[in-house]
Amino acid sequence: MGRKWNNIKEKKAKSDANTSRIYAKFGLEIYVAAKKGEPNPESNGALKVVLERAKTYNVPRAIIDRAIEKAKGSSDEMYEELRYEGFGPSGSMIIVDALTNNVNRTAPAVRSAFNKSGGNMGVSGSVAYMFDQTAVIGVEGKSLDEVMEIMLEADVDVRDIVEEEETIMVYAEPDQFNAVQEALKAAGITEFVVAEITMMAQNDVDLPEESVAAFEKLINALEDLEDVQQVYHNVNWE
Known about the structure:
By secondary structure, the chain is an alpha+beta fold. The chain has three domains: 6-72, Orthogonal Bundle (Arc Repressor Mutant, subunit A), CATH 1.10.10; 80-129 and 203-233, YebC, transcriptional regulation domain (Alpha-Beta Plaits, 2-Layer Sandwich); 131-201, 2-Layer Sandwich (Alpha-Beta Plaits), CATH 3.30.70. It has helices at 6-9, 19-36, 45-56, 61-72, 103-116, 144-153, 177-186, 209-224, and strands at 80-87, 93-100, 120-121, 131-139, 160-164, 167-172, 194-201, 228-233. Strands 3-1-2-8 form a four-stranded antiparallel beta sheet. Helix 2 packs antiparallel against helix 3 and helix 2 packs parallel to helix 4 (61-72).
């Protein structure tokens, strides 16, 4: 695969002013995952994936515990998982995943963010077919050959293993997320730079210089929306 992971890393480079907002989004995502199944990551695969990703963002334990405890309680808050697709400047492609308790609020807000930044929303399926759902796990402190050997010895199927910016990145099918992590943990790795299931573009694009500012404005506007959890795109973000 060999793709730089800037599109994932950029999410970790938020300023301190946005930290509370990021934590709030994780709190909601953890609550919804725990509410849909058992509030135990060992028996709830979706919850386990969210918690592993939360660790890489240093989400405080108190926020995690509070969300899980809320899911165990009698709260009847209902949230829908929604996906919007659209196009940004210069034909860039964008996927927006949201959790909302008010669809009538979310859709207009997403559409407005696109329209105000030179983009436009597309119909369902207009963009997603150009992306692949992918498990991405990044580690430091091991060489490329060492990680390859770990995967071979554990008999874990992966799409690719590459070195990117001093981090060894393992790309795998979504259903191999836990297998990859468990193999690495068994080899003594306790911390992960990246650990998530994401949507990765099949082909990246470089924007012309005159479109970069508008694209950044659009991505920021989408990520700032209360109901938006994840924003994926196909732009090389340098």
